[in-house]
TrEMBL record:
Residues 103-140 are annotated as: Disordered. This is Aminoacyl-tRNA hydrolase. Residues 103-117 have a biased composition (Basic residues). GO terms for biological process: rescue of stalled ribosome. One of its GO terms (molecular function) is peptidyl-tRNA hydrolase activity. The lineage of its organism: Bacteria, Pseudomonadati, Pseudomonadota, Gammaproteobacteria, Lysobacterales. Residues 21-37 form the Prokaryotic-type class I peptide chain release factors domain. It comes from Dyella psychrodurans.
Length: 140
């Protein structure tokens, strides 16, 4: 069981863990051990996720999310397989916790009179600067 929040707990059966050969330091030993971890979690078909959390996860533009709605996390930070597995699980929990809170609705506001004035003044000063450049340029 992987606890995400008091109301959401993921059973191990929903997590697919695969071990791969990691790149990076380790000498010849790295070619023989599968210390990298690939963790897959099916967001689209998971019965453990509430519908609103699922919708927020699927709406994200995350390259780790496949077209089939599977979240793929690769952990290869450590040389140890166990630490990489824990790292992948922690990252999955972080992603799921991030989708728990609904984003705040943006309240449209109008720019203040002073901010409009500052914008126009900066545009005018920029235009003057460019005009002085064009006048002093000689066409020889």
């Amino acid at each position: 069981m992987l606890p995400v929040s008091p109301s959401i707990v993921l059973p191990e059966s929903e997590l697919v863990v695969r071990f791969l050969r990691a790149d990076g330091p380790g000498g010849q030993h790295v070619n023989r051990t599968e210390s990298a971890v690939e963790l897959r979690f099916d967001v689209l078909n998971s019965p453990s996720l509430p519908d609103d959390v699922r919708a927020r996860l699927l709406a994200r533009r995350d390259r780790r999310l496949t077209d089939e709605g599977v979240l793929v996390i690769q952990a290869r930070r450590f040389r140890d397989q166990g630490r990489n597995r824990d790292d992948a699980r922690e990252r999955l929990v972080d992603i799921l916790r991030g989708a728990l809170q609904a984003p705040k609705k943006r309240i449209a506001t109008k720019p203040t009179r002073a901010s409009k004035q500052r914008r126009l003044e900066s545009k005018q000063s920029r235009a003057k600067l460019k005009q002085t450049r064009s006048r002093s340029w000689s066409h020889e």
